[in-house]
Amino acid sequence: MAKVVNIRRDVDDKFYRYRMPALLTKIEGKGNGIKTVVPNMSDIARALSRPPTYPTKFFGCELGAQTTFDEKGDRYIVNGAHDATRLRELLDQFIDKFVLCGECKNPETDLIITKGDIIIRDCKACGQRTTVDMRHKLTTFILKNPPKISKKSKKAGPTENGGGSPPTEAAEAEGAESDDELTKRIKLEAAELADKTNLKEDEWAVDTSPEAVKARVEALGGELRSNLAVGDDDSDEDANSPYKQIGQWAKENRETASAVDIYKHAQDLGIEKKHKTLQVLVQNLFTENIVSEIPKFGALFAKMTTSERHQKSLLGGVEIFVGVTHPDLVPSVPKILMALYQYDVLEEEVIKQWGTHVSKKYVDKDISKKVRKASEPFLKWLEEAEAEDEEEESDEE
């Protein structure tokens, strides 16, 4: 039996909780038929929560060698003779590139494939999502052979657990729920947020009985009660309007408030389903570090964005935010759109329509044109990604 080592071999702590079997190799055959077998690849992959084909294929990519998988027979082979030391070094590289969180370097991650075919490491330890190096050859293999897990909701494109390990209890529980697909996905996001906010997954569900609503309204105070039935029109210039209320609250509490806190506050104000709420939150919840702040609130915006109208209002908030409040952030528009797109907040067709049609609804025409002009690199990326998908489908046919 192989000895057990730290997943991060640069960590000397003997109490380090993340462990895996030391990689073993066995040379078989001779001459042109010589090959290296990794007899415990399945055990290693299980510890990393990745399919055993991924590190095996990574070896082949790095060594320029053919690889063979016999999953039923549990045999993973790299052509040629390769010593264990060299393969262990390559395994360290695989772990660094495709397992460890890019933020906290914790191996407790899942691989997620976005609808734009971007591979992300989703960290359950710190809650961050970091993109893998999409230039590596292994990414093509992963996209064609996505990780398998029990079915989870997807707005567009798979969101899979990385690895051959069994589904988590949370995932199994979700499968038994009768909520719509969007709610299932957001509840999963909320569970991940719990690592930071110490809130349980079921805290997304708020008691909406008449008694509970009345109690929350009473807690808000009489001054606010008359504003709870505000509609979608723009007659909210009153300083006590719910939109002004949530905007001010979001600005004052953005450092400490969790996504769940914000959603509940919107519910208390009766505007959690209003498209204008998204516009207001974008303008008041973020700072000049919006690109790095979006992951913290990705679940919130995905939950609240339920229609094309919601998406357009959110984009209107982005226009005001970068075009008026933070004009120096205009060059960051592609990154902002990418972040929102990866969290399934914005749909491809809505982004394309928005990016090619100047509008004076939220800002003046010149600013609108300037913001959309800045979005062109992302629009081009969407077009190229779609063309590549069509080409791959054609090749497969």
TrEMBL record:
Nucleotide-binding is among the record's keywords: yes
Taxonomic lineage from the root: Eukaryota, Fungi, Dikarya, Basidiomycota, Agaricomycotina
Organism: Sanghuangporus baumii (Phellinus baumii)
GO biological process: formation of cytoplasmic translation initiation complex
Regions of compositional bias (Acidic residues) in chain numbering: 171-180
InterPro entries recorded: ARM-type_fold (IPR016024), IF2/IF5 (IPR045196), Transl_init_fac_IF2/IF5_dom (IPR002735), Transl_init_fac_IF2/IF5_N (IPR016189), Transl_init_fac_IF2/IF5_Zn-bd (IPR016190), W2_domain (IPR003307)
A GO CC term assigned to this protein in UniProt: cytosol
Entry keyword set: GTP-binding, Initiation factor, Nucleotide-binding, Protein biosynthesis
Region feature (Disordered): 149-181
UniProt-recorded name of the protein: Eukaryotic translation initiation factor 5
Family membership noted in the UniProt record: Belongs to the eIF-2-beta/eIF-5 family.
